[in-house]
Amino acid sequence: SSELTQDPAVSVALGQTVRITCQGDSLRSYSASWYQQKPGQAPILVIYGDNDRPSGIPDRFSGSNSGNTASLTITGAQAEDGADYYCHSRDNSGDRWVFGGGTKLTVL
Amino acid sequence: QVQLQESGPGLVKSSGTLSLTCAVSGDSMSSRWTWVRQPPGKGLEWIGEIYHSARTNYNPSLKSRVTISVDESRNHFSLKLDSVTAADTAVYYCARLSSFLEADYYYYALDVWGQGTTVTVS
Fold first, then answer.
1. How many CA atoms lie within 13 A of B71 on its CB side?
2. Handedness of CA A5, A70, A92, B48 (dihedral sign)
3. What is the pLDDT of residue A2?
4. How far apart are alpha carbons A73 and A63 in whole angstroms?
5. What is the mean pLDDT of residues A14-42?
6. Testing the interface with B: which of A53, A88, A89 to mutate, by most B Cβ within 10 A?
7. How far is CA A73 from its chain centroid?
8. Are B49 and B33 in contact (CB under 8 A)?
9. Are A4 and A99 in contact, with CB atoms under 8 Å apart?
10. Chain A residues contacting B, CB < 8 Å?
11. What gap in Å lies between CA A91 and CA A33, rounded to an integer?
């Protein structure tokens, strides 16, 4: 099992705000990054360093990290945001990396 | 613009060795390079990384079977996974782990990914 835990599925109404969480002890010491993956496509980076966006990622995507929980928030979810989202950080040893189990986001 | 492209056999016999290569364009091999896989219908799994051209870290669950190496002359890095079984059937991705310096702290993220290659073990 992953050292980072995510809810398997979350849904949000179009235009509303949704938060996807990632829990793990290593998050108390290390930042998380977040990836969006659509069917048949490679993941893309949407948040790094807990709350920074790469160029080209809409500002409706934001992140935070408090205690052992990192969060990805989408403010004003759009239909195209429906996808799988994965968190990524160091493992408890700090020497290796691990992904969360992923959250399937459905935009209703 | 950095681009990554995986290549290798799409079918590997059970108990054999899976060998994949990731061709890198637009960057040097001095960066930090990662392999990730995704079994059908499942989530992403970190396999391992190589940096400083020779230092490696591996997923403990795969460590006894996996080798990641870099060929600087060809600008590519490779994955070898020994003694494969059906459980190793997956889409295999290569990716670059980049560092971002902010306020005297380095953050890391997989900012460039290959398109992925499907490997079936039978």
1. 12
2. positive
3. 67
4. 6
5. 97
6. A88
7. 8
8. yes
9. yes
10. 2, 31, 33, 35, 37, 42-45, 48-50, 52, 54, 84, 86, 88, 95-102
11. 13
pLDDT tens digits for B5-29? Answer: 999 999 999 999 999 999 999 988 8
Sign of CA dihedral B37, B81, B111, A29: positive
How far apart are alpha carbons B73 and A28 in whole angstroms?
40
Nearest-CA neighbor of A86 among B44, B46, B90? B44
* Alpha carbon distance B6, A11 (integer Å): 34
What's the length of chain B?
Answer: 122
Q: How far apart are CA A64 and CA A46, in angstroms?
A: 13
